[in-house]
Amino acid sequence: MSGPLVVLVGPMGVGKSTVGQLLAERLGVTYRDTDDDIVAEQGRTIAEIFVDEGEPVFRAIEKAAVHRALAEHDGVLALGGGAILDADTRALLAGQRVVYLSMDVEEAVKRTGLNAARPLLAVNPRKQWRELMEARRHLYEEVATAVVATDGRMPEEVTEIALDAL
Ligand code: S3P
């Protein structure tokens, strides 16, 4: 199987970066994050791209970054929370080992509720989370080969469960 060893998907704030780095350490491979790729390539933050250009332009930039990383990277790869909205991206994930890190809405509000750096949660975090989860949960499930519930768990425990599930 070519491409990443493991792809991590799931909502923002679920711990993809932390768990991804721990997983990469345990597997002896490198870690890559498509949000970091986008920031490095664009020379501005994700929030700035959203404000300057709007979400559709961000999604096009994200799609290109995700497809490039899927082709290039052979370690652990974390995708931005909305990357799975794109049907071509979901098709590319078929045949990959994809771990979906999940959390419920209350956990999400607890973890990210006050984080103004996240453009999709700026107005009413609980309502926005509920809508995001309803719109996306089935897409995460569609691409996942394993699901790890992170609610109330520390990243180390989530990593162990993910390793067992691989
Ligand atoms: C987004 C998730 C973010 C980032 C952007 C949009 C989303 O990535 O790409 O703010 O649509 O869920 P993380 O999941 O890495 O925070």
What does this structure look like?
This protein has a single domain (6-153), classed as Rossmann fold. It contains eight helices and five strands, in the order E-H-E-H-H-H-E-H-E-H-H-E-H. Strands 2-3-1-4-5 form a five-stranded parallel beta sheet, with helices on both faces. It is globular, with a radius of gyration of 15 Å. With 166 residues, the protein is α/β, with parallel strands linked by helices. The site of shikimate-3-phosphate has 10 residues, from loops.
Helix and strand topology:
Blueprint (H helix, E strand, L loop, with lengths): L5 E4 L6 H12 L3 E3 H9 L3 H8 L1 H18 L3 E3 L8 H7 L4 E5 L2 H8 L12 H19 L2 E4 L5 H11 L1
Parallel strand pairs: 1-3, 1-4, 2-3, 4-5
Helix pairs in contact: 1-8, 2-4, 3-4, 6-7
Shikimate-3-phosphate binds next to loops.
In the CATH hierarchy, the third-tier topology is known as Rossmann fold
User: Helical content, roughly?
Assistant: 55-70%
SSE succession: EHEHHHEHEHHEH
Which ligands appear in the coordinates? shikimate-3-phosphate
The low-confidence parts are: none
Strand coverage percent: 5-15%
Q: What structural category characterises the helix and strand content? A: alpha/beta
User: What count of helical segments does DSSP give?
Assistant: 8
Average residue-wise pLDDT: 93
Give the C-level CATH assignment: Alpha Beta
Rg, rounded, reads: 15 Å
Strands side by side in the biggest sheet: 2-3-1-4-5
SS elements, strand count: 5
Largest sheet: 5 strands, parallel
